[in-house]
Amino acid sequence: MATRETARDSDDDLPADMIPEILAHLPPKYLPVEMIAEILARLPPKYLLRSRTVCKAWRDLATEPDFILKHHSHQPTQPLITSYAVGPLKADCLEAVDLTTNKRRVVLRVIQRVPRPLPLHFADHGRDRREALMVHEWRDVCDALMVHGSCDGLLLLNFGKSLFVCNPATRQGARLPLLLQDDLDVLGFYKDADSGEYRLLYHQAERLGLSYYVLTVGS
């Protein structure tokens, strides 16, 4: 099934895997921090992840909210589609579609296993480090991955009654303190212009009608 959400990623044929190594061996005086930030912001996500291991300064830079937004702005917009398979090990996929080549690329794969201490976990999967693996505790075989919205590279998605916000490019995510119910519908996921906080708008059926709520996710 298709969604109206978008993802950003880049798969240019450039030696991006060499850029972090080259930069790491250059004397700091030759490259100001601002220039390093501009270079790293143009790397495909998988190479940006590798650059975070070069030094603490680069790791700190790559996790700054302003830098993450800058990096996201340099990635092409691509529509997302979701698919799922039911079997002994249930796996859901979130794929981005390159409209110029008609190729599909997995950006997030979800595997549900038996209950474990951590309900949400990101890890590299297979040989392609562009793909994020999210391990979620086993629920019901009818639970399916659903994307409710996207904003600045963040995805709002759910499995069954659990809601999550995650960034597949940085392998970061969090479970929200809100459970989906039959009388609750998600209406939107957006960034507040004044506070810079990300918010979730939803409504819930009550005895006297519908009530609308805003859940602040954070900045």
From TrEMBL:
Q: Supply the Pfam families for this chain.
A: F-box
- Please give the organism: Hordeum vulgare subsp. vulgare
Query: Which gene holds the coding sequence for this protein?
Result: LOC123449220
Which InterPro entries does the record match to this protein? F-box-like_dom_sf (IPR036047), F-box_dom (IPR001810), SCF_F-box_component (IPR050796)
Tell me where in this chain the F-box domain is found. Answer: 25-72
* Name of this chain's protein: F-box domain-containing protein
What PROSITE patterns does the entry give? Answer: FBOX (PS50181)
